[in-house]
Amino acid sequence: MLLNKNYYKSNFNLALPIILSSIGQSFVQMVDTIMVGQLGATELAAVAFAGTISMNALVFGMGIAMALTPLTGQCFSKGEHRKISVLFQNSLVLNLITSLIIIGVLLGIMPFLQYFGQPQEIIAIGKPYYLIITLSFIPGILFLTFKQFFEGIGTTKAAMVITISANILNIILNYLLIYGKFGFPAMGVTGAAIATFISKFLMPIAFFFYIFFHKRYRRYLLFFKASNLSKFIQVKILRLGMPISGQMVLEFASLMFITIMMGWVSKYALAGYQIVISVVGTTFLIASGISSATTILVSHEFGVKNYSEIKKHFKVGYVLTLIIMGFFSLMIILFGKYIAQIFSSDIQVISIASELFIVAGIFQLIDGSQVLFLGALRGINDVVKPMKYAFISYILIAVPFAYICGFILDLGSWSIFAGFSAGLFFAAILYYRRFSLSIKKHIEN
Is the pLDDT of residue 33 over 80? Predict the structure, then answer.
């Protein structure tokens, strides 16, 4: 039975700016892929390899930043604005420290990239890109802190405007620095990385000035003071953020292993995989936007212990996810080959990407479902069990299954991607079961 349309409107109004913001970022990554793809399969594979390794570290910081949303949301529903400010201040400090740690780890890994089994020409081109993208994590994670804070108080439009503006700048800089237009040097892959760094650097600065000059939000900055810094608060954020990070790292780690396996097949398989990931990454962000809206709405109701409303917001988020991801599933399966031709003119790359698009289309509903269930769980601060489920699903099921299908049974590059899909399916089942049991337990208590 469908719920009142106001529930759908509430979710959609929150989700749309998040979706547009995320799609804007994904669109830039897609444009990066298209622009770099024009340089050749080697350059495209280098970006895929370096980007996957660095992204797997970034999601650790993203997970800790995401803990701010449900904590803020629960305080916001009770009108505890000073507590929100304390959470925000401590989260900024904690995430700055986290970004520095991530950069240190990634720089430590850099000398060992040549041992990941990739062709040497990919490593040589990818290293400068890897270094610059790594350095962009400081402003990137600080921006995420601002974004998650605003989502917690139910405001999602500011991040959308800032993200889209920065993305437009990124595309312009890509054109200038990759190909050397209007007197700029032609820097290729390195130019794409520099463009990304500049745009990310400006994003948290823009957010700060937005808060400072907006009367409604300035109070959260005015509450800032040194005495608010608290190890207890930071540990509280970490206790929620670390399991979220763990879950995300495990999921992206499995994707990293899939990427590495594609590189073992051939550079054409890796390039084709990069095209598919660029596209389905965009559809995933749409589902993730609905999930984030569900987290916000659920956290607000969880703060006042309104469990009947939590179940309604969960149902609405799930219905929206199934409708939207069902549509994209059909589009990807029907038009995957034509989409691949936008990114590359290489016949082998297009052929492999076309096969991978069929697999990707099949798991769209599964992928959307599992991220929606995760969003609902985060809204009720249930994050430890999902991290354990992620380990089982992504590491113990997805990666071994992909290897067996791709290299022992030798079914082809499409079967490697299918292995990841099997892990997603198992994760979705576990997350749904966990949410149902958690809500039942809260109601009984």
Answer: no
